[in-house]
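QA checklist item 7 of 12: single-chain prediction sanity check.
[x] sequence parsed
[x] length recorded as 329
[x] structure emitted
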Amino acid sequence: MISRLRIFLAASILILPFILPTSGFAMQGISGTFFQPTNAMKTWDNETWDTLFNTYRCLGLSEIIVQWVVYEDTSDNYEKPTYEYDLSVISKIMEHAEQNGMDVTIGGVFLNSFWKRIETDPELIKVHLMRIRKGTAEAIKRIAPQLQCSPAFAGWYVSQEIDDRTWLDKNYTDILCSFIKDLHGDLSTLVPNKPMSISAFSNGWASPERLGQFWRTVADTTGVGRVLFQDGVGVKKLTVKEVPLYLKKMQEEMQGACCTLQPVVEIFTQLEGDKFTAEPAPLKRIREQLHEELPFAPNGVMLFSVAEYMSPIGGEKAEALLQEVLHNK
């Protein structure tokens, strides 16, 4: 879902001097944000990075979830994907997070053929997931020394998001659980003793009860430490009022598990068209989402995603939403 958005910031964004308030929480209950690295970000200057992290700080964010360290478009050459390991963007994120006292959770490799591959038979899915494991391990090896000594590094994130239909059959559940355990094992050999998080979302296929039972099974089987439930409001998967029905049942089913549930608030609105485009959501709707989801978020909610939709680097509408937030605390 989030990965399918394929959001890319323009390479030629001009960042003008920008001053934000320096104290206080702009929105109560906000814990952090997702961040999607792109090749365009390799050209960002220090002022751009400072602007982004100043925005994070003024919103009171404490965690950044890096969606992936490598994103590969393999649609035209699935059999021989080419990985590019220029991880300078990840290093920049870590450096700025350390300077601002923020935590960073790191994703792995995402192949955009994932959504097609999970519609195939189990053996092909296994092959795809093995490629992800191999690519992720190779990429993380490049930055493992930095992660090992960074006070900002908080844990791992599975870049493949899990829907409410594909994985419900026991055979597919077993494949998923094996993948999560094996991936965590691979990464733990590089940087030990770090928890793993994974994203879930609903297309309205499984009932809230069934989805909660599924995630309890995954949590108990894999030891995953956090399930991030994307509310789907921005892409019109669920309505604002439907989201708490899922959160309530998932929370009930997962009670007693060594796993936390954390909502992800989509702060954008998808626009009509064949290709994904979106714009910042109205603040009124975002506040409605927070009202419904915060009762199920003892650790606060995550936002998707501040860089694109609530910051100066996201364009005029994103900057306008940020200013509205900061001046309507």
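[x] summary fact logged: Residues 2-6+29-326 form a domain with the TIM Barrel fold (CATH 3.20.20.80).
[ ] second reviewer sign-off
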